Amino acid sequence: MAGDVGFFGPDSVTWKLHQEPILGLGGLRSLYLQALHPRAVAGVSQNSTFRTDMWGRLARTSDYVVTVIYGSTAEAEQASARLRRLHARLSAVDPRTGESFRVDDPDLLRWVHVAEVESFLTTALRAGVRLSAAEIDTYYTEQLRAAALVGLDPATVPATAAEVDDYYTAMRPELGLTRDGAEAAFFLTVPPVPETWGSRPLRLGLTLGPPRWAYLGLASTAIGLLPPWARKMYGTPGWPTTDLAAGLSARGLRALLGSVLAVLPARYRVSPARQAALARAGLA
């Protein structure tokens, strides 16, 4: 695999953007946004173990994204083939209509894809990562490769910032907070805390301690970074002051992460997947 930089590479905006640790917050934002699609969240609720293994599911999702971004061509293709085979076997029932639908329905895959890449990009920009308008559009265009890997026709996927805005406008009448969406958002906001976090148990299975409060801060920032129309669907304010506060919080978090990484040994500053990709590119 020497020299194989996969579907993106060191000159891509994708590699430039995904070296930012703050994108983890973008991933959380995307989950809140995805949960506003009634069928998308029903598909997860009826086919996933997120209620009993939330952290494992998030880890597997993160591993897939990292493989697509930094893996070799073969690694990314193998990971996406496994995902497509899994999705092809799954179906769910729309709780509003009783209609059965396939989890790999292109409309659902497109929503998940757009919500994810837009969340990564928006979170980075709000946290202070500088990208030109051309680089923003290039990122969306590059991510058409990721869309194709999950089985989408790239021609049907928004490929610029303007196209993403138009897509959200067209999708808004289909979105809303269902019971599945509310439960998913609750789990994202108050997830079960692993025992290794060392928090003391309270009633209702909740926990309290520094890790919990830190995570609640992350979750509230992720919600604050949602578009105003999405926040209103969750019953939270769509005020401009919320946007300002969330942006300041994201910038502060990015600065904190940068300060922590700066004092770590060099081998810990870059993720193993990125290190391996740089090595294949001869840039380690």
Report on this model:
The protein has a two-stranded antiparallel sheet with strand order 1-2. Strands 3-4 form a two-stranded antiparallel sheet. The chain has one domain (13-191, 213-278). Helix content is 61%, strand content 4%. With 284 residues, the protein is mainly alpha-helical. It has helices at 13-18, 23-34, 38-47, 54-70, 73-88, 106-126, 133-142, 144-149, 161-171, 179-189, 210-224, 228-233, 240-262, 272-280; strands at 91-93, 100-102, 200-201, 207-208. The protein has 14 helices and four strands. Helix 2 crosses helix 11 (210-224) and helix 11 (210-224) packs across helix 13.
Features:
MPAB/Lcp_cat_dom, 61% helix, mainly alpha, oxidoreductase activity, 4 strands, 284 residues, single chain, globular
- Total number of β-strand segments? 4
- What is the N-to-C order of secondary-structure elements (H for helix, E for strand)? HHHHHEEHHHHHEEHHHH
Helix percent band:
55-70%
Low-pLDDT regions: 197-206
Question: What percentage of the residues does DSSP assign to strands (E)?
Answer: under 5%
Domain ER-bound oxygenase mpaB/mpaB'/Rubber oxygenase catalytic: 15-256
GO molecular function: oxidoreductase activity
InterPro entries: MPAB/Lcp_cat_dom
